[in-house]
Each structure stands twice: as C-alpha cells, then as structure tokens.
C-alpha cells in the first residue's frame, strides 16, 4: 500500500521555453580574478556542507568500534578496539542479517510484481477499447491521492481475517496494484509505441499475450526500470506496515528490526547499538557507490519527463 | 524477442517460486513439531531453557521482544494463533490484562492440576495468576519485593558504616533519604542515578491501585508528593542524571560516570540503585563487574514491589503437556529451583525450597549478605491487590508528567492536569474525577 | 467493441482484483470502524458520529496537526532553499563548477538510508549528556553547555526538521537540477549579454520557469510530510516526547489503534488525516490554477 510514497515524489515535466530567444554572441568575459576567489569560497562551502552531511555517519562508524564506556566518556573520531565485542553483544540479542534477508525478499518481490503487473495493466489501458475504461482509469487516479494510512486499520483487520498476519504476503501481494506505476508506464508506452505495431503483430498471427511479452514489455522496460528504483526504495524503507503486520522477530524487516533494537538489551551498550545501526546502513552505502549514477539519472528522468 | 520472452518467463516463475517458498517458510516453524516456542521480554529464561533441553531432549526456541512492544506484538499472535508461542510470560504490569483475556490455558484444569500446589507458594504470587473466576492461568517462580542496593565502600566512607540494618534505618523515611543524599553530595557522590528511583516508595507508602473497582482513576497524595521529592532531588543535584535503563544508568553501577553540572563536567559515583529482588541477578550482576562484592541491600522508606514474571501455557498450543513440563520445572522443581536460587540469588515464591535455603543463604556479590531472609521479610509487607491492567501505560504516562514538573516545564497542578487528560484520551472507559 | 478488445479486461483484471481487495476494501472497512467503538475484539457497536465529534475537540490531535505542519514547514523551507541555491551555483554559466556528480551523489546519500536507522542514530547522537554531537560541539568549543536537543519541545521539533532536511535536500537538489538543466541555455546567455545580474536572472528567468517543478516538490513533500511517522516514533519514546512536541498525526493514529486498542477512534483519526490532506492538496492546486489563469489573462 505504501510502496508508491517514493514514486509520488516524481515530477512530471518542466515547462519548455515557449519563445525562442535570439542567438547569443560571445558571452561577456568574466572578471577572472574575482570569479576565481568566489569559486574558492563556494568550493569551501560545498566541502563543509559535504562534511556536515557525512559527520553523522562518521560518528556512527567510529562509535561502532568503541566500547560503551568510551562512547559515554567523550567524543572521538578515532576508531576504538571493541568492534568484535560489540558484535558479540549485538548478535546475542538480534540477528541483523535476518532483517536484511527479509527486507530483500520482500523488496525484490514487490519490485518484480509491481513492474510486471503495472506493465500489464498499463498495456491493457493503453491499447484496448472497452466499456468503462476511462471511468476505471480516472477512479484509479483519484485513489492514487489517498494516503496509505487511511486504510491501515482496515488492512490490518483484513489480514487478520484472512489469516495473513505475521506473514510476508500482505506486504508483497498488494504491489500488484500500484496505481502510480501504471499511470507512469501508460503515459510512457503511449508515446513510444504506435498502435499500428500491434496490428502488424496480429496480422503475423501473434497472440495478445505474446504481443505483450515480446513487443510491449521490452518497450516499456525503461519506464519500468525507472519506477522500479522507487518501488524498491519505498518498500525497503517501509516501516509502518511491517511494524503492524509482523510480530515474530525472525520475520522483522530491517526498519522494524531497528525499532526493535532500540528497546532491546542491545541499547544498554551504546557501542553495540551504533554497530547495529552501522550494519543496517553500510551495505546500502556500498550499493549506492555502484548505483549512484543510475539512481541519480532515474530521479532526474522521472522528474523531468521528456 | 524469444530470448526476452524466456527471460520474462524465468523471472515470473522465479517470483512465483520464491513467493510460494516464502509462504512455506512462514508456516515452516509450525511444521517443526519438536520445537517448543517460548516468548518473553527478557533473556532470564535462557539458562533454564538450556537445562530443559538437556533434560528432555527437545529443542526450545526463545523469542525475546522488548517490553515496550511486548504486549503489542504478542496480542495479535495470540489472537490469531499465527506464529503463536506454546508458552509465554507476562510481566506484572500487564498480567491482569492477560489472565482475563483467555490466552493462557486454564491451569486449574485436572490435566495440569495447579490447584493442588496452592500451599507451596507465597499467597500473593499464586493469587495474581488467577483470572476473575478464580482459575489459575499463570504461575511464577519468584517474589519481587524491593530494596535499595548500595555500594558498601561509599557507605563506609560517608556514613561510617556499611551494615545493611544501620544504613536501612538511616533511610527509613524520605527525610532520612534526603539527609543521606546530602552527605553523599558533600563527598562528591550521587545518591541515586535518577529521580525516578524513588517512585516506588510512593507506591509502597500508600498502596492503591491506579484504577479502583468503580473504574475511577486513583492518584494518591503519596504519588503527588513524589513529584515534589523528585523535583527536590533534581534541584539539589542528588542524582547523576542517568535515566533508568539508559547506557549511563548501567555504567554507573560499575564505574564512575561523568555528569555535567553548572557547565562543568565532573566525575562522580552513584551510591544506590532502587531495585527489587530480580534487580540483583538480571541487572546488577550483569553490569557491575568491578564492584562485585561491594554491594549490600537494605530497605527504603517504605516496602514496595516491582515486576515479576509469570508464565503459562498458550490455550491453543499443540504441545500443552510439554509446555506445562517447562512451567513445572520453572515453578515447582525442587532441584532446579534450588540451583537457580543459589546461582542467581533470585528470591523464590516456592516455599518448599525457600524454607530449606533461606537461613544459611549468602551472596558473594552482596559481600556475603543473606538477601534471602531480607527479601522474604519484605515480601510479607507487600500489598498485592493493587495490580491493574492499566499499570504499564499509566506508569509511563505519569512518569512523563512528573518529568515535566521536575524539569520546570509545568507547574505541579498543570502536570497533574496533563496526566488526567492523557489518561482520558488513552482510556475513555476510565473515569477521571479531578 | 472488437473481439480482441476483451483482452483489455483480462490484462487489467489482476490489478483490479488486488486493488479492490487490498486498497479499496480496507479503506471502506476503516470507514465503517470509524463509526464504531471497535476495540480489537468482536462485538463492536455503532456509535454514530461520536468519534468524529471527539476528534474535533481532541487537543492532542490538533496539537499533532500543528506539530506535523511545523516540523514539515521548517524542513521544507530549508530543503527547497538549499536545493535551489545549490542548483543555481552548479548551473551558473560563469562559475562552471566542477564535481556536480560527486556532490550530488553525496548530498543524496542520506535519502537512501532507512529512516528508522536514521531516527535511531540521531536519537543517540543527540542525547544531551552522552550524545556525540554535544560532545563534539563542546570539544570544539562551539557551546559551553550541552544542548537538550530532544528533551525540549522547540529543539526537538527543530532537530526533527533538520534531520528531514538532511535526508531530503539532496533529493530536491537532483530534481531542481534536472529542472534547471531543462531550461534552454539561450535564456541565460541572452540575459548575460543584456547585462542582467545574477539575481535578475534568478528571479526573472530561472524561478518562473521552475515553478511547476517547485510546486510539485511542494505537494509531494507535503503529502509525505503529513504522514510523518518513522522519525518521531523512533527519535524519542514513541509517544511524542518531549511534551508531545513530536506527536504527529500518524503517530497518534498508531498509538490510539495499536497501543491503546481504540481502533474505532483511530479509524476516525485516519479519516481526519485524509480530509486534511485533501484540503491542503485542493488549496495548493487551486492556488496554482488561479495564478496561471490570472497570468494568462494578464498576458
């Protein structure tokens, strides 16, 4: 239900300039020296900002290697020697890695389901004429505006009545219906795929399913990929739903496990607590190292639809 | 194109496979028939479980959920039966709610026969496990009267004696407590880790339930007075500003801790911790390593009790017999309980064992003091009828209001008013006559 | 309707089955509960509008509403201001700053971290006595007294705002940057030739052209902000401490439902939240629409 929170942040289109301005001649030469000085200030500012952005992580990492006593006694950016000890305390109470596994299973399945079924739905809406099509589409768009929390209590009761509490199913299956992804993919396929392509394939004797899987789906891939990033991040960060629906600690997702950590005996030892947080954060950072270009360009692409 | 189709299909089947796989795995815990599942909010059952596993050749899986989330997480599991444990524990603060909720099997039933062992328990412990119809739903191995644990070395230095009786008589009234606190301050020590430490004395001074039989909220004068005492402790800098259960609170048991006051950072030691029986083995012994042996326990201005863990069998458990075997070991097994008491210093509610061991009990951690006789003595002063199902949440809400007054954000009346309002908001069914 | 068009139904069927079951039905079920005194056990009674009348006079809900707006508002101002400034620096034709990819990635990073981890991390970093932040500031000499970040209402709300800004300004920066690079360079170059100052270029060219993107960021951020939950839940005690300053609407909903078992009332809180969100969205949309119309007429 909440997977789309991230996707909703996407921005459809900036305005294209309406009038063409006259061609420029040479730009006026800048006052070199002053600009150079100004640039120095700006770079310094940017670097300071970067450091501020990173300091919380730095504190987290160093504190994760220090003992409770050291953390309590003062601030330092030098790593300590209690990493192994902290890990022992941590793993005594909480299995962070199982949280990772659970979050990964859920997020991957959510992303796959949402991508595939949204494409299917978008395809159905884009290329077939049937009764009530427009009404259904508009209804879907309206429901897109409804915040996920609105149905929270009903969703909980529904899961309870279906016997689905404490399982991953109510966290995964609803991804089949992701209105925002459907909307985005439909807009996309309508611009890139001409209906005549569909007709041509039919004349060649392809079935409708086959057309979808072999022609339409590959063409929708760029849009699906863009959306998948947001679906994945949204699902990975989802806290409220799994918090309400899961109750066995071995099934907790990473965010729920973090909340669990806070109340557990791990919190008696600050070093271990920092380590627990660090373990939840560092793999994401490493993944981001490799994916940052892709993620940033997806946000840009999603933001400014060309 | 064909290749793409295949890859799409593979992803599809993969997804379907993993999906069915994961729904399997969510059910697989129930399939492991030989595993006995226990839920609790502390790790104190870890050792008994290992013993039980060895003795019976079964596997026991202990799930620990932090106490703040424990009722919220356990309730849906018990209600739906999904992922529900065979045994679960209940803390005294929400015990009342649960004995009447019907999640625990009726232990008075002949197949368990808990009625027959009635006389073997300290009466209040046995009675608290009964539902409103008088059926036993849960049993406990412990009794939880409270005391004040203090460091002998500091007592000797500041008070001139480390004898529990003498120190106890110095602290037999709130005025006495404040006198001792002032002496501690003179020498650079702190009486308590935080202001909340003394809340139990207000409970003990006039034991009343939070909510009486007419569903009315009861805020005793003693509880109101506690606000002033707490504020005085803070104002006179008698505490180390280390909130209960915080890392610095634990640190203060073992080592000097740093406190910032008047803009300066000073190092100080905490003299005493107000904790009940279980505080000895599950809190102090776990965290105070270098100060082991330097501790003693005595009484405060009024007797009080705090906490206690009951355990019972889930009504829909398929392994009720095995589950009750564990309950029996925990609560009625002479041999096990004798070992348990000697090892941990936990004060038992099971009289056949306590009668045997109390007279020559001594605990190394407490410098050889016989904490058993002390606590059994205190246990007789307990008024247990004051437990209600609202305790956990109301204690939390009142604590927050007290803190507002202590920190000077609200006047006393405003803080109390705020408390009333919050109670009304959380429990519309409680009558708040203010 | 052609024969093959039936496939339209087939293709959208899975979506609708799931959508009706897991989205629409829960919303309606919640609506039903909002008229009852449901407390988690069967046998609820219809209480009419009682929950809603209680909601209107519920000072905690009203407080939660204002808390949410305050926390979001400060965060949004900083977030969008920061993002705009950075975007302008990096798009300035004269400055030709390098390292856009690096800075952009760095500033964005906190946004990827699970907000629960962020909340937990700051919860201990901001501890007034033993938190690393105060310790660092004391050591560096920026402050003489530790700041009670999370125990005073104002600083707690400010902390929450700043944490949100820290998490989101990189995201907004990317989006604004994408918008800025969508603007034809011709505008800037022409303006430079005409001797326009930086400020003039910004206020006359960049800002107006970015308006749609900024408004969109605002609406989505507001909708997200009204649903603020994870951060206040895990930053302090989960009950809105200190003094209810971090009590947000969704946190209130959660506590009413799952902590105090007042499901019926919590359902009404959910609908209250929904109506508030709706009103805000309509007001913003309308404001945007009217302005555009006025502009058209003026032109």
| Domain module tally of chain A | 2
What portion of residues of chain A is helical?
over 70%
Q: Helix coverage percent of residues of chain C?
A: over 70%
Instruction: Estimate the mean pLDDT confidence of chain C.
Output: 89
Descriptive account of the structure:
- The complex is a heterotrimer of chains A (306), B (434) and C (299).
- With 306 residues, chain A is an all-alpha fold.
- Helices cover 70% and strands 0% of the residues of chain A.
- In chain A, helix 2 packs across helix 14, helix 5 packs antiparallel against helix 13 and helix 13 packs antiparallel against helix 14.
- The relative contact order of chain A is 0.17.
- Chain B is α/β, with parallel strands linked by helices.
- Chain B folds into two domains: 161 residues, D-Maltodextrin-Binding Protein, domain 2 (3-Layer(aba) Sandwich), CATH 3.40.190; 200 residues, Periplasmic binding protein-like II (D-Maltodextrin-Binding Protein, domain 2, 3-Layer(aba) Sandwich).
- Helices cover 47% and strands 12% of the residues of chain B.
- In chain B, the strands form three sheets. In chain B, strands 2-1-3-11-4 form a five-stranded mixed beta sheet. A three-stranded antiparallel beta sheet of chain B has the order 9-5-10.
- The termini of chain B are far apart.
- By secondary structure, chain C is mainly α.
- In chain C, helix 7 crosses helix 9, helix 9 runs antiparallel to helix 12 and helix 11 packs antiparallel against helix 12.
Fill in the keyword field for this structure.
heterotrimer; A: 306 residues; mainly alpha; MetI-like fold; 2 domains; disordered N terminus; C: 299 residues; globular
Topology readout:
The complex is a heterotrimer of chains A (306), B (434) and C (299).
Chain A lengths: L3 H4 L24 H33 L3 H6 L9 H11 L2 H32 L5 H12 L7 H10 L7 H4 L6 H14 L2 H9 L4 H30 L2 H6 L8 H10 L6 H34 L3
Helix pairs in contact in A: 2-14, 4-14, 5-9, 5-11, 5-13, 9-11, 11-14, 13-14
Chain B lengths: L1 H30 L3 E6 L5 H11 L2 E6 L5 H11 L6 E5 H8 L23 H6 L10 E2 L5 E6 H8 L4 H7 L3 H13 L2 E2 L8 H7 L15 H15 L11 H8 L2 E5 L2 E7 L1 E5 H11 L7 E4 L10 E5 L6 H13 L1 H11 L6 H7 L13 H9 L11 H16 L5 H15 L8
Parallel strand pairs in B: 1-2, 1-3, 6-8
Antiparallel strand pairs in B: 3-11, 4-11, 5-9, 5-10, 7-8
Chain C lengths: L5 H28 L16 H7 L2 H33 L8 H9 L6 H11 L6 H9 L12 H29 L3 H9 L4 H29 L3 H6 L13 H11 L3 H36 L1
């Amino acid at each position: 239900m909440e997977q789309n929170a991230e996707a909703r942040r996407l921005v459809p289109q900036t305005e294209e300039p309406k009038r063409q301005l006259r061609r420029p001649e040479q730009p006026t030469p800048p006052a070199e020296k002053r600009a150079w000085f100004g640039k120095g200030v700006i770079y310094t500012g940017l670097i300071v900002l970067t450091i501020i952005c990173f300091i919380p992580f730095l504190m987290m990492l160093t504190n994760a290697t220090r003992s409770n006593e050291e953390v309590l006694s003062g601030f330092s950016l030098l790593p300590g020697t209690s990493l192994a000890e902290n890990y022992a305390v941590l793993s005594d109470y909480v299995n962070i890695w199982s949280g990772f596994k659970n979050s990964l299973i859920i997020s991957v399945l959510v992303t796959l389901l949402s991508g595939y079924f949204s494409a299917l739905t978008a395809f159905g809406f884009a290329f077939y004429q049937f009764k009530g099509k427009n009404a259904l589409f508009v209804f879907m768009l309206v429901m897109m505006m409804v915040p996920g929390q609105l149905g929270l209590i009903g969703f909980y009761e529904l899961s309870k009545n279906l016997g689905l509490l404490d399982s991953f199913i109510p966290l995964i299956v609803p991804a089949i219906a992701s209105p925002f992804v459907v909307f985005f993919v439909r807009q996309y396929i309508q611009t890139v795929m001409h209906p005549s392509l569909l007709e041509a394939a039919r004349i060649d004797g392809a079935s409708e399913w086959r057309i979808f899987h072999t022609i339409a789906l590959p063409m929708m891939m760029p849009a699906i990929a863009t959306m998948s990033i947001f679906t994945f991040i949204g699902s990975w960060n989802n806290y409220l739903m799994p918090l309400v629906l899961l109750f066995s600690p071995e099934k907790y997702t990473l965010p729920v496990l973090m909340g669990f950590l806070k109340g557990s005996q791990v919190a008696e030892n600050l070093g271990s607590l920092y380590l627990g947080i660090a373990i939840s954060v560092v793999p994401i950072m490493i993944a981001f190292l490799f994916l940052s270009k892709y993620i940033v360009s997806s946000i840009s692409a999603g933001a400014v639809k060309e | 194109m064909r290749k793409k189709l295949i890859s799409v299909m593979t992803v599809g089947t993969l997804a379907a496979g993993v999906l069915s796989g994961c729904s399997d795995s969510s059910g697989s815990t129930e399939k492991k028939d030989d595993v006995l599942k226990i839920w609790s909010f502390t790790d104190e059952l870890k050792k008994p479980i290992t013993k039980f596993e060895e003795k019976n050749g079964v596997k026991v899986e202990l799930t620990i959920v932090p106490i703040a989330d424990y009722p919220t997480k356990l309730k849906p599991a018990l209600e739906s039966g999904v992922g529900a444990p065979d045994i679960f524990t209940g803390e005294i603060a929400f015990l009342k709610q649960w004995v009447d909720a019907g999640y625990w099997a009726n232990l008075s039933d002949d197949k368990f026969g808990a009625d027959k062992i009635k006389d073997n328990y300290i009466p209040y412990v046995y009675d608290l496990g009964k539902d409103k119809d008088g059926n036993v739903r849960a049993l406990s191995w412990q009794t939880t009267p409270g005391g004040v644990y203090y460091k002998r070395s500091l007592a000797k230095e500041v008070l001139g004696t480390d004898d529990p009786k003498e120190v106890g008589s110095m602290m037999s009234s709130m005025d006495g407590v404040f006198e001792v606190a002032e002496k501690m301050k003179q020498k650079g020590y702190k009486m308590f880790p935080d202001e909340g430490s003394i809340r139990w004395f207000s409970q003990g001074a006039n034991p009343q339930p939070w909510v009486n039989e007419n569903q009315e909220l009861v805020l005793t004068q003693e509880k109101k007075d506690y606000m002033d005492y707490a504020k005085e402790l803070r104002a006179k800098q008698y505490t180390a500003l280390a909130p209960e259960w915080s890392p610095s609170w634990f640190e203060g048991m073992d080592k000097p801790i740093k406190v910032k006051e008047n803009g300066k950072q000073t190092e100080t030691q905490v003299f005493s911790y107000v904790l009940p029986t279980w505080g000895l083995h599950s809190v102090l012994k776990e965290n105070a390593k270098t100060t082991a042996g330097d501790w003693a326990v005595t009484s405060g201005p009024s007797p009080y009790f705090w906490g206690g863990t009951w355990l019972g069998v889930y009504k829909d458990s398929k392994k009720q017999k095995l589950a009750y075997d564990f309950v029996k070991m925990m609560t009625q097994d002479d041999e096990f309980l004798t070992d348990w008491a000697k090892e941990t210093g936990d004060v038992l509610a099971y009289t056949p064992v306590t009668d045997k061991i109390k007279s020559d009990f001594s605990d190394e951690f407490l410098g050889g003091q016989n904490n058993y006789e002390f606590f059994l003595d205190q246990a007789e002063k307990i008024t247990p009828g004051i437990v209600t199902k609202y305790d956990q949440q109301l204690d939390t809400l009142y604590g927050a209001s007290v803190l507002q007054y202590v920190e000077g954000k609200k006047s006393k009346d405003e803080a109390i008013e705020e408390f009333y309002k919050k109670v009304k908001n959380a429990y519309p069914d409680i009558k708040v006559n203010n | 309707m052609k024969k093959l068009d039936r496939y339209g139904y087939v293709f959208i069927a899975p979506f609708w089955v799931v959508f009706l079951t897991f989205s629409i039905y829960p919303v309606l079920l919640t609506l039903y509960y909002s008229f009852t005194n449901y407390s988690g056990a069967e046998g609820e009674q219809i209480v009419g509008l009682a929950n809603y009348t209680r909601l209107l006079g519920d000072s905690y809900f009203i407080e939660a509403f204002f808390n949410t707006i305050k926390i979001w508002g400060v965060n949004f101002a900083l977030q969008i201001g920061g993002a705009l400034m950075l975007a302008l620096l990096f798009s300035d034709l004269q400055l030709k700053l390098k390292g856009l990819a690096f800075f952009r990635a760095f500033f964005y990073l906190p946004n990827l971290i699970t907000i629960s981890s962020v909340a937990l991390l700051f919860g201990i970093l901001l501890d007034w006595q033993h938190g690393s932040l105060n310790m660092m500031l004391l050591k560096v000499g920026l402050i003489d007294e530790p700041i009670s970040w999370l125990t005073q209402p104002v600083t707690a709300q400010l902390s929450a705002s700043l944490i949100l800004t820290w998490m989101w300004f990189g995201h907004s920066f990317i989006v604004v940057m994408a918008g800025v690079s969508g603007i034809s360079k011709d505008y800037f170059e022409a303006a430079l030739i005409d001797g326009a100052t930086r400020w003039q270029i910004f206020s006359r060219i960049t800002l107006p052209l970015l308006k749609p993107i900024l408004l969109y960021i605002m609406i989505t951020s507001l909708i997200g902000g009204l649903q603020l939950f994870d951060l206040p839940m895990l930053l302090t005690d989960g009950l809105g401490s200190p003094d209810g300053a971090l009590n947000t609407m969704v946190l209130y909903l959660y506590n009413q439902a799952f902590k105090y078992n007042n499901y019926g009332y919590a359902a009404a809180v959910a609908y209250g939240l929904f109506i508030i969100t709706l009103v805000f969205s309509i007001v913003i949309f309308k404001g945007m629409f009217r302005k555009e119309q006025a502009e058209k007429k003026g032109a």
